[in-house]
Amino acid sequence: MTILLITGTSTDVGKTVVTAAVAAAVDGHSVAVCKPGQTGVAAGAPGDLAEVRRLSGVTRTLELARYPDPLAPDTAARRAGMPPLTLAETAAAVDSLTDADLVLVEGAGGLLVRLGDFTLLDLAQQLGAAVLLVTAAGLGTLNHTELTTRALQSAGVRCTGLVIGSWPGEPDLAAECNRTDLPRVTGVDLVGAIPEGAGRWDRERFTAAASSWFEPTWSPFG
Asked: Residue 103 contacts by C-beta under 8 Å, 6 or more apart in sequence?
């Protein structure tokens, strides 16, 4: 069994679509997906895990808490007067899924966003798990990505690779240069890039293409 945490350099960089793509690219293995804290989605409405299920076909998913305001989970919990997540309960919930071959845990926002009394970095340390980092293609991504990989390195958490969450159909000069510079400045391999708009595809098209978006030498089990 392998646990892989998926985080981003910020919000809206494509973590959910990358999570679905990793799940879809794993062939012949059972996959479970956990989203500890979902925010900005009403009770009963489809959230990020519904999108992962729609795109990848994975059926075993677990959401621990949902808060109405589109804020960091800790802030959203306090505003709603709801109990925040704790590191202990979240780690235990992830461990409850470990009969799957691969457990993917999608964070909220960036690496150091407070999910409760902890961050995704704390959860990675608690679980002894590696992190896959989703980043943007354009200007600003070098700074955001290097800051995040340095935080992981300082905490002793392995970053298994970088994935560009939305690679433009017509990349500009900055995106083309960043594709070369991201691994150079971080020391972490760029292991994938998801085509812009792939999150709007149907499941058949998405699952058929997902494995081609990752480097053949990279594996979520590695």
From this structure: 1, 2, 3, 4, 31, 32, 33, 34, 94, 97
